[in-house]
Structure formats: C-alpha cells, structure tokens
Amino acid sequence: MSNPHKGRTGLDRIKHAAGYSLAGLKAAYSGESAFRQEVWLMVIATPLAFWLGSDWVQVALLIGSLMILLIVELLNSAIEAAIDRVSLELHDLSKRSKDIASAAVLLSLLLAVGVWGAAVWQHLR
Q: Would residue 80 show up in a list of annotated catalytic residues for this protein?
C-alpha cells in the first residue's frame, strides 16, 4: 500500500510541506513552554548578535547556536509526543528515550551559552 501523500511533486509538495512545518511550529509554540521561552530568547538575542559579533561569522555563530537550540527542542518535543502517543504507561525504554532527548536539549543549551559567553568575553576584553 503506497502513501497517498508521497505522490505530491513540485509546488504542490512544497506548499503542503510548508503548511505542515507551520502547523508544527504553531503546535510547539502553543504547547511547549520551553520552546516559547527559547523563541523569545531568539527574538531578543538576534539583534544583540549583530551588536556583539564583530563580523558575519560571529553573528552567524551566535544566531546559529540559538537556532540549533530551537531545532533540538522541536525534536525533543516530537520524541516526547511520539512516546506519549504509543503509551502513557511508565516504561524503561520510554524514559530512556525521553531522557536522551532531554540531554540533547541540555547539550545544545550549553553550546549556546558557550558561544555567547565567548563572544561576550571577547567583546569585553
């Protein structure tokens, strides 16, 4: 049995994919407080990146580190939703999966803090 959604091509595929992506962003923003906080961090920090960064590479690293944080948070939320869809019953593999996804968010947050900390340090010296 083939997937009826896989037959789309060209602009029709792009239109549907964009719609799914926007629905995902809306769902994450309305349903995940951590994602909302990180979006607002991105909104506030992006102008600061242009002030703090001395060239386009530094600006890209500053903004990129926050973008990675948002991406990883979206993946974490998707993993949690999929696990919860399968079963709300406590299970070692479900816990392990959610813990690993949460660890990925932590590492991406530490990356962003490190990049921003280094940029601030360089700016203040």
A: no
